[in-house]
Structure formats: C-alpha cells, structure tokens
C-alpha cells in the first residue's frame, strides 16, 4: 500500500493507493487543440459520456475521479504546463466513483462527450463539453514523444496545449460560460 498526500489551499488530502497491474503509470504526452466546425463528426467511430470531478487541484497536482457508463478511475496528474505531464491512473469501483462525485468533489463537475476519431496513424479524442462549459470543443492527441509527427485534420484549430484555461481542472474554477 502506498500513500499519496497533496496539499491545496483548503486542506491536505491523503489517499492510500494499492498499486496493481491495472495501474497506469506514465508520462503523458498530449497536444490539445480547438476544433473548427463539425467535419470531425462523420469520422467519429465511438462516443462516451464522461463525468468527472476534482478532489484536489493544487499548484503541484490534481486528483480527479472520472466515470463513464461502464467504468471509473482515479487520476493523479502533475500541474505542469505544456505537452508532457506525469499521470497516474487507477481503476476504482463504479459505485464508489459515483458517490465521490456526488458527495466529495468540488463543483461544478465536468461533463463532456468524448468522441474517438482515427486520423492518420493516431487516435484523436474530441471532447464536447456540456453544462457550464457547453460550447467548448477541444481535440487531443496522445504521442509517444514530444517531437512525434502527426497528420493534422482539416478541422484542427489553434493549439492550446500551453494555455491553462483549457485544462479540465481550470474549467471547474473558471467555466467556459464565464469567459468573455
């Protein structure tokens, strides 16, 4: 059993984590872009509704719970800017995730539909935000290394990988609906 402690402005949160073979421990290399138009929709081969909330969002890391229709997980992500961040992901029971989201996470929760699009040699995830962030649509592509080439779809807009406003943890505090 490992214990992780993260401090934020309001409290210290410690979570005991049993590391298993199901755990994902990796450096995430991800580029994020705004999406132009709806041309990507005809290429989407799968979609899922995601609901997520944050237990902690500090200067060093965020701890979130995310759930879809059939799975749930705890995610710990470094708060560094840019395309490379540390990320640790652990599956958790679906019912536990629902209770955590409903009772422990700071609001508002992030709700979005994630659409999956294959383009070139990469899988693109297009997040269409709902609720307080309705109207925001971003595309993300995960890479194996920072300089990896990828084919740019014609619906790809401005890159926002270095803009913290587009991080999900920021959208809780400053929803898209409040941007001017």
Describe this structure in words.
The strands form 2 sheets. The chain has an 8-stranded antiparallel beta barrel with strand order 3-7-6-5-4-8-9-10. Strands 1-2 form a two-stranded antiparallel sheet. The chain is built from 2 helices and 11 strands; from the N terminus they run E-E-E-E-E-E-E-H-E-E-E-E-H. The protein is globular. The longest helix is centred in the middle third of the chain and has 10 residues, at 94-103. The protein is mostly beta strands and 180 residues long. Helix content is 9%, strand content 51%. The protein has helices at 94-103, 168-173; strands at 2-7, 12-17, 24-35, 44-57, 61-67, 72-78, 84-91, 106-119, 122-129, 137-142, 156-159. The chain has one domain (2-178): Hypothetical Protein Pfu-838710-001 (Beta Barrel), CATH 2.40.320.
In the CATH scheme, what's the topology name? Hypothetical Protein Pfu-838710-001
What fraction strand? Answer: over 45%
- In CATH terms, the superfamily is Hypothetical Protein Pfu-838710-001
> Helix tally?
2
Multimerization state: single chain
Which structural class fits the helix and strand makeup? mainly beta
Summary of the model, kept short:
The protein is 9% helix and 51% strand.
How do the strands and helices of this protein lay out in sequence?
Elements: E1 2-7, E2 12-17, E3 24-35, E4 44-57, E5 61-67, E6 72-78, E7 84-91, H1 94-103, E8 106-119, E9 122-129, E10 137-142, E11 156-159, H2 168-173
Antiparallel strand pairs: 1-2, 3-7, 3-10, 3-11, 4-5, 4-8, 5-6, 6-7, 8-9, 9-10
């Amino acid at each position: 059993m490992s214990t992780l402690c993260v401090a934020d402005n309001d409290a210290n949160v410690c979570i005991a984590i049993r590391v298993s073979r199901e755990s994902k421990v990796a450096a995430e290399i991800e580029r994020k872009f705004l999406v132009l138009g709806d041309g990507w929709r005809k290429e989407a081969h799968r979609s899922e509704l995601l609901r997520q909330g944050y237990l902690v969002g500090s200067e060093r890391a965020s701890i979130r719970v995310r759930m879809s229709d059939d799975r749930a997980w705890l995610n710990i992500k470094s708060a560094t800017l840019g395309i490379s961040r540390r990320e640790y992901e652990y599956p958790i029971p679906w019912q536990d995730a629902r209770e955590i989201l409903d009772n422990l996470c700071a609001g508002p929760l992030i709700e979005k539909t994630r659409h999956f699009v294959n383009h070139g040699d990469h899988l693109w995830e297009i997040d269409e935000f709902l609720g307080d962030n309705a109207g925001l649509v971003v595309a993300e592509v995960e890479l194996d290394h920072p300089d990896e080439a990828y084919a740019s779809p014609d619906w790809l807009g401005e890159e926002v990988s270095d803009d913290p406003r587009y991080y999900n943890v920021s959208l809780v505090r400053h929803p898209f609906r409040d941007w001017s």
